[in-house]
Write a structure and sequence with these properties.
single chain, about 150 residues, 4 helices, elongated
């Protein structure tokens, strides 16, 4: 990974981090991002299918979280996929209080977090797109009013 690729990816991750921190109402959490430039062995549960790009250690009692980011594993992923991974890790903060140590509960947590991530992304995208559609509609209406006003002057 070149220096330029590392810096660009880090900036992109921080942008997504800052936006989703606010969206998910996690601003009160003290979150540390650790960017691993070299391959970082992401802890995996037995039988897990972790893609190895990020790992969060969240302590709900104190609103503390550390996210380890395996930068080489993210290289080449789409911005949307990187964003989904970040939202997934953030969602662990929301459910970390329910976490138990037995491996089966971890599998259930991963499933719940994955489904919540998909729901959050869909809700955000829908709201964003609806907002853009409303803006475009208002712009079209304003343009029609402007044309009508200009026609009335002629």
């Amino acid at each position: 990974m070149s220096d330029a690729e590392y810096r660009a990816l880090k900036r992109s991750i921080k942008r997504v981090h800052d936006r989703w921190l606010r969206i998910m109402h996690l601003e009160s959490w003290d979150m540390l991002l650790i960017f691993h430039r070299d391959d970082y062995p992401i802890p995996q549960e037995p039988g897990g299918s972790n893609v190895g790009s990020m790992y969060i250690d969240a302590d709900w009692r104190y609103l503390l979280a550390t996210i380890h980011i395996n930068m080489p594993a993210l290289l080449g992923l789409s911005d949307e996929r990187i964003e989904q991974n970040i939202v997934h890790e953030f969602t662990h903060c929301l459910v970390s209080e329910m976490h138990r140590s037995d491996p089966e509960s971890r599998d259930h947590e991963e499933r719940v977090v994955t489904m919540l991530t998909l729901a959050l992304n869909r809700a955000y995208d829908t709201g964003w797109n609806d907002g853009k559609a409303d803006l475009r509609r208002k712009q079209r209406e304003a343009a029609k009013e402007t044309k009508a006003a200009q026609a009335a002057k002629e």
